[in-house]
Amino acid sequence: MTYLLEVDGVTLTYKTPQILVTATRRVSFHVNQSDRYVLLGPSGCGKSTLLKAVGGYMSPTEGEIRIKGRKVTEPGADRMMVFQEFDQLLPWKTVFENVVFPLRVTGKLSRQEADERARDYIEKVHLTRAIDAYPHTLSGGMKQRVAIARGMAMEPDILLMDEPFAALDALTRRRMQDELLQLWADTRFTVLFVTHSIAEAIRIGNRILLMSPHPGQVKAEVEDVESAGGTEGGATRLERQIHDLLFSEDKVQDADDKVVAYG
Ligand code: ADP
Ligand code: MG
After folding, report:
1. Hey, whose CA ends up nearest to atom 23 of ligand 1?
2. Which atom of ligand 1 is nearest to the CA of 51?
3. In ligand 1, which atom is closest to the CA atom of 45?
4. pLDDT at residue 253 above 60?
């Protein structure tokens, strides 16, 4: 069985002249086509590091990462990244230019096709009115929409999102979550989404990987968020279960078999 993304026993370390930091230890999970797969864990548990490695910006010291069975060794257009920071856009380019630029760089589309694709995705994130605006004139939420459009327009195998809404105010964050889910309903793209918010994980994910810190390890996996939290009051109950799993000292096998704890 070849998964869309397979993270197989991945240990990631940072070497500084003074110390060796183990960011994650033997983390394994897989992502299926059209999954909204969430990495959830407290700050410092290695979520960003894992995403960097999936992006091909960092090599595992142990284990392997595979996309459609091919080992990841470098960045590629099959994996596009959206970050938390609002400054991920090119400030001297307009919304349109930011989105179309990587499409033109790949050389896979004609100029006209690239332009059309860019306009299409700008429309999908409701930014047509701001298509000629420069980033500094946009709100945080609008900037994140541009970054999402830019990533999605490349139609990657998987979209990697590192706390993309964490720096937004609560109301805007909520709206962006809804919009992301609407985009997913339209196009069924595959996303690997990082967050430290349990509520966000439940809202966004169909599957959630729970990670423990220092070094980041897999604590448990919620295999079917909808059936675990979809009933009345289910989301609140699931939130509490996840909280207890994340912060329990030993690895808990929850009574509810919809939450599967790893050994
Ligand atoms: P998260 O995204 O879950 O908050 P990170 O992946 O950013 O966690 O960090 C995981 C661990 O790796 C932390 O202990 C952090 O201090 C360490 N770390 C992150 N980046 C570096 C780096 N460039 N050099 C050394 N240590 C780092
Ligand atoms: Mg991070």
Report:
1. 14
2. 6
3. 3
4. no
Task: Show the beta-strand stretches assigned E in the chain.
Answer: 5-15, 20-31, 36-40, 62-67, 70-71, 79-82, 158-162, 191-195, 207-212, 217-222, 259-261
Inform me whether the pLDDT recorded for 259 exceeds 80: no
Q: Which CATH number is 5-78+156-260 given? A: 3.40.50.300
Contacts of 142 (CB under 8 A, 6+ apart): 127, 130
Domain residue spans of the chain: 5-78+156-260
Q: Which two tokens stand for residue 24?
A: 């994650």
Q: Is-above-0.90 flag for pTM?
A: yes
Give tens-digit pLDDT for 45-77: 999 999 999 999 999 999 999 999 999 999 999
For 172, residues 6+ apart whose C-beta sits below 8 A from its C-beta are: 139, 140, 141, 165
How sure is the predictor about 262, in pLDDT bands with cuts at 50, 70 and 90? Answer: very low
Which stretches does DSSP call E strand in 107-254?
158-162, 191-195, 207-212, 217-222
* One-letter amino acid of 263: G
